[in-house]
Amino acid sequence: MWTCSEYVREGFEVKGNKYPERGHSARTVSRVTDPLPAVEGIRQRNLARLLRLVHLEGPLSRASLTESTGLNRSTVADLVAELARLGLVAEHAPDPSRRVGRPSPVVAVDHTVLALAVNPEVDALTIAAVGLDHTIARRERIDLDHLLTPAETAALVAARLRAWRSGPLAAARIVSVGLAVPGLVRAADGLVRNAPHLRWIDAPLRDLVSAATDLPTVVGNDAALGALAEHLYGAARGIDDVVYLNGGASGIGGGLIVHGMPVAGAGGYSGEFGQNRPGIAADTDRRAENGVLEDEVSRARLLAAVGLHTADEPTLAAALGASEDPAVEAELARQRRILSTALANAVNVLNPSVVVLGGFLATIAAHDPQGLLDAVAAQAMPSTMEGLDIRVASLAEDRLLIGAAEAAFADLLRDPTAL
């Protein structure tokens, strides 16, 4: 789970706008200083550099890899051949329409290298196979009429893994599992300290899933992983100071990117915006006495307004958009007012460049984006609003799954030879 700042911390230089042949700006990463470990250590590090580049940026020519890393052409060719032998990248011929001078093969991650990404919620378990190229190869939402237990989650993930390996993903390599959990996850060991809506307390989810699947497993807070995904590939790509709020069936969580780095907190529990107590100006807007933000700004209340018991994000958004019931509009407006106060508080404290909203919060924002921005501006300090942009999560319902997969791929990206 490397960000731009992590590259810098590891001794790389990050620059933009170096791949004009791809038709858009992108980042390059080059070594500024190199310590002098053993030869094998240097080679492993260089393999990781190349794999991270094509993982983050997509297919790149060997010439681009040579330019961005500062390695010579023969070294890059040798490293690419090693990554191909490991089954992590593939080379193909360049686009003839863009070829100038001597052609340079294009290097891309092997799309058959996958991680399982899992998001347990109060009403469903979503499981996806996500490629090293961030694409969703398979996805399944298992609707539930009861609360999952950690053991049941592990069993369902293992069953889906067996079915996919013997069926549609028989030719793929599933190398790891990442879980995005709506609750407090201890960073040190992946222990789910408290997922209140699932009623999980001190659940050893990582160990349960790893034992059931026989795969390396990581567990993280769902909103923190959503923030990472949107920072690397989505609405906050290239933005160093970001506040991300995610709205799901279990409530509201958040993630922070400060100076390009994810902020986890001392134990890994930062970003719990949903547990803050919002200022509610009008008593008529209050629905939960002494409630926290997620009691007032609530997916369950939106579902009830349109007469649905359960729904995925696109279905709920479509139902809200199609409704002509004044009561639905009133509920959206009420939740938008309370959300704007919570966002203004976050903007005052953190002074981000961008606020990204995911899940049902994106639906609330998209219903009246300018109205939400104006309401935040009316309550925040003018200086903290300068240049602020509020965006909906561009990865939509994929954001938590891509974030979970990014966490699952972290060890492979750190050492491609360890697969």
Automatic annotation (TrEMBL):
<comment type="similarity">
    <text>Belongs to the ROK (NagC/XylR) family.</text>
</comment>
<dbReference type="InterPro" id="IPR036390">
    <property type="entry name" value="WH_DNA-bd_sf"/>
</dbReference>
<protein>
    <submittedName>
        <fullName>ROK family protein</fullName>
    </submittedName>
</protein>
<dbReference type="InterPro" id="IPR036388">
    <property type="entry name" value="WH-like_DNA-bd_sf"/>
</dbReference>
<dbReference type="Pfam" id="PF00480">
    <property type="entry name" value="ROK"/>
</dbReference>
<dbReference type="InterPro" id="IPR043129">
    <property type="entry name" value="ATPase_NBD"/>
</dbReference>
<dbReference type="InterPro" id="IPR000600">
    <property type="entry name" value="ROK"/>
</dbReference>
